[in-house]
Batch of 4 targets.
Target 1
Amino acid sequence: MPMLFDTVPQQDYLSLYEGNSPQYNRIAQFLHFKKEDIARATGLSQNSVRYDDKMPPELKERIIEWAILFNLVAGFFKGDAEKTQQWFITLNPMLGNVAPRDMIRFGRYKKLLKYVMNALAENRG
């Protein structure tokens, strides 16, 4: 079972932040998401997908959630960005032969997070 503070990565393994500021474009680019991927994943229109001062709050929230998830997985791989990316793009039999990247794109982020949290807890166990 995941512990309360396990939902926050130990550090920013993937350099997705500058100081405490999320680098939204860098986070979205980590898995090579296109504007249409982000729109589909968030339920926003493609025109709403932007990284400036007019960025919708719900988009900020989603992308920050992704950064946390990416760094949690990177923590398992001891900060190795290539292994982390590989894990996200590889079809996973435990997820119905769907790649974790596609789980995010299809709006299944919460299911993926639950899977990752349980897997990390079992590994720690």
Target 2
Amino acid sequence: MSNGSTSSLFDYVPHPHMQQRQATGPPKVAAAAAKMHGQNALGRFNAKVGLRITLVVGTMWCAYAFTVLALVSAPTAFRSGDSLIIVAWIAQTFLQLVLLPIIIVGQNVQAAAADARAQATYDDAAAVLAEAKQIQAHLAAQDLALEHIIDVVRGQT
């Protein structure tokens, strides 16, 4: 029993996942990166570089900088009068340079919301587990009381 009392009415057997989950805690980005790139020095380096680049490129400031960079070649593209060059500039220069960091910003916002939901779910599950342990302890106490009542009734008959 979780509270140390014993009862012949019920034997509590905790699920093995409980101990593992309590030991590991909620999933973390570092663990996911290690699975993706490996836990050796090269894998850790690749994960750090990739994360750093994503953090830098995935900002609105980078989107603004890329917009300015893309606009540098805009006058030349439009002066050419060639629709293929204009379309290529819009698609290959402006959209790719500007949308890339904006998409990353959006993904970062969504990832932060998903992480918050995951943490809340983990915290809720931990609270439910604690409540279940309290219920189990209460039931163990009731089992002892019932056993005592049964012993008293048997002694009187």
Target 3
Amino acid sequence: MLRDQPLIPIEAVKLVALGFLADGPRRYGDLAVQIRQFTGRLVAPSLDLMGSSLEALIVEGLAAASEGKGMADNARLSLTAAGRRALADLLQARLKPPLGDVTRLALLLKLRFLHHLDPAEREVQIAHIAEIVEGEIARLNELRAGDTAAPQAYLDWLEAEIAQLQGKLARLRR
């Protein structure tokens, strides 16, 4: 099922949590650190990315605690069947151009956890990501073409951005 709505920041954090749990069970504290480090390395710390508590995943039935109950006793968390469905739904969310911090985070999250989708759904998502990258390249090309009197450092920067995106697009298509 392809979602029409793009991921919002709190869903991006949920996607990280569910994705890591889909990779394998984690201790509550380890998962919290892993989420914070992963998102913090990709985008600057942001109040928008302060996700809901991992306890919410348990309450929502997306994760199950074993060897404990939650944060207080550093329970071991595992993904439930409902969590797998939620992960698939989040992985199929639309990306919203242009590639700002949240969209870039969502794109990288999709790429990181795409292996949890079946092959047909994976192909759809890769095609969607390629479409977003193509749009970003077109946007930057228009920006460059519309500002020929700009300083060379600016034009060089745009050229480098375009070349980088073209390289990423080529890798996606392989």
Target 4
Amino acid sequence: MLCHCFKKIGLLIIGLSFLVPACSGLPVEYKVIQAQNDEIRIPLREINDGGVHFFTYKGWGKKVNFFVRTDEKGTLRTHFDACYACYKKKKGYRVEGMDLVCNECNERYNLKEEIWKRVGMGCSPIPFKSTVTESELIIALKDIEKGKRLF
């Protein structure tokens, strides 16, 4: 009887070990985006729909995650999928309805606000520079590189 219980416990431990990588705190990988000539170029037709779009850039031995959102005025804004308060947990954000929610502390941000008032303080998405042309969102690699320490 005792031996049978140890077998069940052993199987449970083996089963749980497969879940550990998913909870390890490593950043997830979104749609991987490539750079050309030190720039990331994303066609507006892929992102200018009012939603939130998550991407991963692989560089410097890291996966740097970021997202593009459309604010209430229709302006595209770029943010790292991290904040200064929770970045060490490597959990990023998720979308729930009209809110962006931190996966670590559950702080919420309305996606349609033009500018998030708490940016740069505590748990808030970290913005970075990007440029919008007639047909593309352009991100300089030097601007993505500034956030690599968060990942």
